[in-house]
Amino acid sequence: MTMVQMQPRSTRAAPVPRTVADAMETAGPQVCDDMTVEVALSVMASARTAHLLVCDNDGVCTGLLTHAQLTAIRDSSAYTDRVQLRDILVDPGPFASPVTTMAEAEHAMRCRRLDALPVVDEHGNALGVLALAADRLDRGSTIPSFFSL
Asked: Side-chain half-sphere of 117: how many Cα atoms within 13 Å?
């Protein structure tokens, strides 16, 4: 038998904060902002996803839309079949960097009541999504746990 010598850990060592890169999902479906609401809903159904990343013609992420948001737009009295995603992304919302701490991302999501947060690089290109896991919601909690890989 080989003996392994263990070194004690310092109890004063500060834990390394988890970053968004540790917990984000891959980007998933990305669509152009000139797509109509109906086509976007169809893409969501085909991809079996609850959100879409919306990008402009240069590939820069301009926001994230959920199925609930698109359905609400489609069901509104002002809806026409010509409404494009860029027409409804008036407030693109917050974005996270891969080096954003989980505490910062959680704060941004809690303040804006978001279920998902786009993660972008320094050029605005989508890298992934930080999403809440519906199956990990704590009963009675207003702040659900984050999905983690």
From this structure: 28
Cα pseudo-dihedral 98, 104, 109, 110, rounded to 10: 160
**Residue with the two structure tokens 């980007």:** 27
Alpha carbon distance 111, 106 (integer Å)? 9
Give me the residues of the chain with pLDDT under 70, please.
Answer: 1-17, 133-149
> Rg for the chain (alpha carbons), in Å?
19
C-alpha neighbours within 13 Å on the C-beta side of residue 124: 12
pLDDT digits (tens, 9 = 90+) for 108-139: 888 888 888 999 999 999 999 998 765 433 33
The per-residue pLDDT for 12 is 63
CA pair distance 122, 129, nearest whole angstrom: 15
Longest CA span, the chain:
76
